[in-house]
Write a structure and sequence with these properties.
globular, 2 strands, single chain
């Protein structure tokens, strides 16, 4: 392997690693705040790509049907909950929030989809659609079981994964999609061609990670999520609603996954079931971070991208095996160095 090939492989690895880092951060965020191992994260990535690809062709994406259906279910659950608590006067407001908001997003996308709008507008519509799915998924599937054990929440995540997989096949079909590159230009540095597309992916990921750092460090809502992650009971005692924290967490995680789908679309062809494999690579990065450390999880995801890239050169047929084998020594090391505590009742 000469230095030029090594530089190209490193470029691909860093580009993929930047995308995996967003996924790893989403998984760590969801787990630390809600104790949920969010297996369906990969489906949100795939749906981000497929939704944008549908908008590129002027078609109304099938994601809107899922969005509206989940909004209706969430709205009815909220209304019933208000009635049971004797708060019927709050029903109109809850319906406006849980049905009206997503319905407005769906109507806007449905109206604008056939207009062949500029690429950046299509990206924003895609992110709005995927992000709106996050809190709805939490309200419908996870919030009623928020106090259940981690094992029960894991089983729910597995069930949701297969459910969303089937819905993806139903609404997007079995054909793969690929979105156009943000830029086809390239730069030559020290005799190595660097794709502007790769630079944009890395810069976008870093910008989003920086924005999240500011959100958690400087805003009241970000500090509330940090407090919930440290001590759920303590956060509840000081007035932080666990339901609100869960919904906000899934909103941010869905945004990260949707953005990952937008970034990965020009790099590889995405099918309705491609998200699971992509999500697993982000999960490896999250595991390296112990599902608790954001910087280590991001660094682990970058390592996954580099290992995948160089493995594709040395042993292309076994690159997935090599990447996922990385998790074994990490788990072994953590099992030997981490003191186990029984889960609080």
């Amino acid at each position: 392997m000469d230095p030029t090939i090594a530089a190209l492989l490193a470029q691909d690895g860093i580009t993929n690693g930047a995308i995996y880092a967003l996924l790893a951060l989403a998984l760590v965020l969801v787990f630390t705040v809600t104790r949920i191992v969010w297996i369906p994260a990969g489906e949100f990535v795939a749906w981000g790509t497929l939704t944008l690809a549908g908008l590129q062709t002027g078609a109304v994406p099938g994601t809107l049907k899922v969005l509206v259906g989940m909004a209706v279910i969430a709205g009815l659950m909220e209304a019933w909950g208000c009635v049971r608590r004797g708060q019927a006067q709050r029903v109109p407001g809850r319906l406006a929030l849980w049905i009206g908001g997503p319905a407005l997003v769906a109507a806007l996308v449905w109206w604008l989809a056939p207009m062949q709008l500029p690429f950046i507008v299509q990206v924003l519509l895609t992110l709005a659609t995927i992000t709106a799915l996050g809190p709805l998924l939490y309200r419908v599937a996870y919030q009623p079981l928020a106090e259940a054990s981690v094992l029960v929440l894991l089983i729910v995540s597995v069930a949701l994964h297969f459910t969303l997989l089937g819905l993806g096949l139903l609404f997007f079909g079995a054909e793969g999609s690929r979105t156009p590159a943000f830029s086809s230009a390239s730069l030559s540095i020290a005799g190595v061609n660097i794709s502007v597309q790769s630079l944009l992916v890395v810069a976008s990921s870093l910008a989003l990670i920086g924005a999240l750092a500011l959100f958690f460090g400087r805003t009241l809502y970000g500090k509330a999520l940090r407090a919930t992650a440290v001590n759920r009971a303590g956060a509840r005692l000081v007035g932080i609603s666990p339901d609100f924290a869960g919904a906000l967490t899934f909103t941010l995680a869905a945004l990260l996954c949707g953005f990952s789908g937008v970034l990965i679309g020009p790099i590889t062809t995405i099918y309705y079931d491609s998200g699971f494999l992509v999500g697993l690579k982000g999960f490896v990065g999250a595991i390296i971070g112990g599902l608790s450390s954001y910087p280590i999880a991001a660094a682990g995801a970058l390592l996954v991208g580099l290992i995948e890239s160089f493995s594709s050169f040395w042993a292309s047929a076994f690159k997935e095996v090599i990447v996922f084998t990385l998790i074994i020594p990490v788990l072994l090391w953590r099992s030997l160095t981490t003191t186990h505590h029984e889960e609080d009742e």
